[in-house]
Amino acid sequence: MSAAALTAPATAPAHEGRIGLRANLRHIGALARRNMLQIKADPESMFDAVIMPIIFILLFTYVFGGSMAGKGHEQEYLNYLVPGLMAMQGMNIAMAVGTGVNDDFKKGVMDRFRTMPIARSSVLIAKIVVEIGRMLIATAILLGMGFALGLSITTTPLHLLAAVALSVVFGASLMWVFILLGLSLKTPQAVQGIAMLVLMPLQFGSSIFAPTAKMPGWLEGFTEYNPLSNLADAARHLMRGGPVAHSVWMTLAWAVAITLVTAPLAVSKFRKKT
């Protein structure tokens, strides 16, 4: 990372509020480039975005598709599954942000940022920008694999793009949750362990893999308030048709609420640690 890329008007790191918008955007761009260079140097870090969508779609379509839709009707389940996997993919990618932030502290990377005249929030926002890029790559691979297996869209390409955008917006809000975990816990393994405890009930207690009408009454009630169910249903209706307004607005409401609560906490925690 060049020194010029991180140069700001004469100001001390402690007074990041005085850093102008243009300088802040320049810092975010430079830090995002640094994160992308890290990925280039370690291509294995892209496995979760490149390989996992393929594994998930093949595994769930051909292992559970016959049971859910009947043998020989796996394609029907594929059309139900892919929009739900878009929702799940966002959570899985978001988890990597928390482990990455925690690992940067362990390696002393944040000590370097402490001495630079940059906004503390720009470090976190740059990570989110790069992870959104990884999320888009994972979604593109998921959809490409889906179309290769017979996925059909009964609406329009604009509706499909809207479903992708909605998944990205919600996934970006979850990144603040995992950043907060990464800043609060001691090791990347602890972040991953706590994240899985949160992810598993939310993913499988939702409409991602199965219609909620087939679930027990108490679980069906939980899925109605599960934000992943709202996101999966919204993406499904955008891609396949159906009443979409309620699910979309609920998903956006969840995304805004999560961001408003966790983003200030994450930035405050990051300032204290740096």
From TrEMBL:
ABC transmembrane type-2 domain: residues covered: 44-273
Assigned keywords, A-Z: Antibiotic resistance, Cell membrane, Membrane, Transmembrane, Transmembrane helix, Transport
GO MF: ABC-type transporter activity
Membrane-spanning segments: 46-65, 77-101, 122-148, 160-183, 190-210, 248-267
Membrane topology: Multi-pass membrane protein
Any one GO CC term of the record: ATP-binding cassette (ABC) transporter complex
Record's keyword annotation contains ATP-binding: no
GO biological-process terms attached to the record: response to antibiotic
Compartments in which it is found: Cell membrane; Membrane
Signal peptide: none
Pfam families, A to Z: ABC2_membrane
Similarity annotation: Belongs to the ABC-2 integral membrane protein family.
Protein known as: Transport permease protein
Organism: Streptomyces telluris
